Amino acid sequence: MLNERIRIAVLVSGGGTNLQALIDAQAAGKLKSGKLALVLSNNPGAYALERAKLAGIPTAVIDKKKCGAEVFEDRLIAALQENGIDLIILAGFMCILSKRFTDLFRRRILNVHPSLIPSFCGEGFYGLRVHEAALERGVKVTGATVHFVNEIPDGGEIILQKSVRIFQNDTPERLQKRVMRQAEWKLLPAAAEKISKELLEERKA
Ligand code: GAR
To answer: Which residue ranges have their beta carbon within 6 Å of ligand 1?
Structure first.
């Protein structure tokens, strides 16, 4: 029991390239303190589910549109507990979690956000919208952040950040890809390993 790895659930809604970065890190032995134990989506059509299946990771779908916000969280909590999950990673998960949920998993939920928090974050800033806002504002540097999740959207303690340059002819799509490639896909596996390692050490203490 003491030598077991930290059981990680990855929560997704869409394409799942950040999930893929975690899967690749696990395959390469870079995620060694944690194990990807469950991929859970609020969206039955998320391509991330296919990525999980290809990697042999158990999947679950809880359709928030069908069951409503409160039942959704009840089912989410039940699935996490049934699977013995220690650490939750939000990887392109487009649902805001309640204080009840974040209090239950305090310092055990990580999120990757495609900007340098506190810029371009909080409610309404997700996906491509974040990069559109950065280009509209004319900033010259953006990046990505991995942080703990609390009741304030994108407001939890920052774990890792990496900056990315913006070029004059950037489009939101081009910028999104550069931020993913240069920052998100590196930061998220690194943060997953860092926090899993810390949790393992805590368990052994
Ligand atoms: C990523 O850029 C992620 O940082 C962002 O959505 C994208 C999901 O892509 N998340 C947010 O904006 C959350 N506020 P993916 O499904 O390919 O990982």
So the answer is: 14-18, 48, 91-92, 112-114, 126-127, 130, 180, 184
pTM metric for this prediction: 0.97
∠ CA 193-198-203, rounded to 5° = 125
For the CA of 144, the nearest atom of ligand 1: 4
Encode pLDDT of 159-197 as tens digits: 999 999 999 999 999 999 999 999 999 999 999 999 999
CA of 38 to the centre of ligand 1 (A): 18
Looking at domain 6-114+145-154+184-204, which of 3.40.50.170, 2.130.10.10, 3.40.50.300, 3.30.2090.10 is its CATH number?
3.40.50.170
Of all helices (H) and strands (E), which one includes residue 175?
helix 172-179
Compute the distance from residue 74 Cα to the ligand 1 centre, in Å.
24
Which residue, judged by its Cα, is nearest atom 3 of ligand 1? 92
Would you state the torsion angle of the CA atoms of residues 63, 66, 71, 77, taken in this order, to the nearest 10 degrees? -10
Share of the chain above pLDDT 70, in %: 99
Residues carrying an active site annotation: 113
The pLDDT of residue 3 is 63
Instruction: Compute the distance between CA of residue 6 and CA of residue 85 in angstroms, rounded to an integer.
Output: 8
Supply the pLDDT for residue 174.
98
**pLDDT for res 2:** 55
Residue nearest to atom 17 of ligand 1 (CA): 17
Domains of the chain, residue spans:
6-114+145-154+184-204
